[in-house]
Amino acid sequence: MTDQSIVQQLEKFTTCDISDALCALKYPNGGFLSGLAMWSPERQSDSTKIVGPAYTVKYVPLDDPASKLSTHYIDETPAGSIIFVSCPPHIPNAVYGGLMSARAHYLNAAGTIVDGRFRDLEEQRDLKYPIFARNVGTAPPYESVKVVATNVPVKLQSEHQDMVIRPGDFLMGDLNGVLLCCRGRGRRRWWD
Q: Per its UniProt record, what InterPro entries does this chain match (predicted)?
């Protein structure tokens, strides 16, 4: 099954439908990624749905010894992917903004999920670009975090869930929330 055919199959359902099926398969929390909600194109009042393989982005605190990426991750966004931005817990700064959405939109990304804060909400909505996140903020990330890797496993920022999002895992977001639908290519799918 190709990525596109998986996306087409998943698009037929809501996140609640998929979550019910995952619960029946005894997958913890039905794949639900807690604390993430739709902010754009509208706040929790729209029929927007995103489905696609994860393109992960890992932020770490500035004092982390890992080297900062030498290029900007947004320029490598694969078409049809969902950008999953991982931010360390308790960072008040936004780690994603309007310029990044403009570029992601141009590159035909399906949408962005920010496990942290984002900014430029009006720009996101003007683009009608799908954003799911924990919250909004105003300050850019430069004084507190840096991007050190893309397409690596990242851990969900949650005290209550031990969820890891891997590159290529299929994510889905709609009015009901965000979930990890199935593992990416080469991994056992939860519905098999």
A: RraA/RraA-like, RraA/RraA-like_sf
